[in-house]
Amino acid sequence: xxxxxxxxxxxxxAPAKLNLFLRIVRRREDGYHDIDTVMTAIxxxxxLEFHPTHDAGIxxxxxxxxxxxxxxxxxxxxxxSENLVIRAAELLRKTAGISTGAQIRLIKRIPSAAGMxxxxxxAAATLLGLNALWGIELDRQRLQGLxxxxxxxxxxxxxxSATARCTGRGExxxxxxxxxxxxxxxxxxxxxxxxxxxxRHCQPxxxxxxxxxxxxxxxxGRVTHAAQCLxxxxxxxxxxxxDAIRRVRETFDRLPVLGHQLSGSGTAYFGVCHTRGQxxxxxxxxxxxxxxxxxxxxxxx
Length: 301
Ligand code: C5P
Description:
Layout: E1 3-6, E2 9-27, E3 33-52, E4 58-64, E5 66-67, E6 71-72, H1 84-96, E7 102-108, H2 118-133, H3 140-150, H4 154-159, E8 163-167, E9 172-176, E10 183-188, H5 195-200, H6 212-219, H7 223-228, E11 231-232, H8 235-241, H9 243-253, E12 259-262, E13 269-273, H10 276-288, E14 293-298
Parallel strand pairs: 2-11, 4-7
Antiparallel strand pairs: 1-2, 2-3, 3-7, 3-8, 5-6, 8-9, 10-13, 10-14, 12-13
The structure holds cytidine-5'-monophosphate.
């Protein structure tokens, strides 16, 4: 995640992520779950522009970007204090003890309620953007502390590594090298799913799933093998809550992808493909099958 200066404004591209592995380790007393997950950022991103203002308000405007390829990002975006952009801005202001305002323009491409981390990535971009716009100069470690307060995935996006193993609630990062590019086709059914609801229905893993095989395969650039090591402990509860996820999994079962699964708590569902060409062909099939949002993407380096 990098800042660009455009006149007096700052611009940040906030990428989406896919979970290549997600094990539910245990239920915690604070209501969260310890997890062991491998996330990779992909080249689908929201864009945030941070403009200075003369008043003390934090003004957010959201535009849903229309892509000829995918249509509009699915889902609804809250504009008030439940939006993670506003929460990140207010937390940063409180931490720095300032009352400076900002005008924030969010161009939304990542579907919400999809398990692709759109809101978390926007929050990380906001911490980075306003830290610079307001000249607060909190170091990365302080920003990571604020990120963890905002959401379990926010630290990953702020962390600066395109692929990472994340443990604890998801906020403890171990950067991973990904020498090979992974090509993905992603489909999101019409309906989204609430993350807390899916976590409420999950069971901690008792079978000893481990990401080590996946991590080794990724490090060696063995994409076909890596695709066979995908795992997501949230998929079974998500399928029990949403017929649409069961149906998209059955659709992918019939497609010639190397491996497939739900991302995070869903409802975005991805397949790993040999090449971008194969991903594009499969995307065509998914569109013909009636999926409203289909996207071809790859892992970021
Ligand atoms: O951390 P975040 O606000 O993104 O999490 C949303 C919800 O997902 C939490 O309130 C919790 O119910 C669930 N969650 C969890 N364990 C995690 C991450 C999220 O139970 N590691």
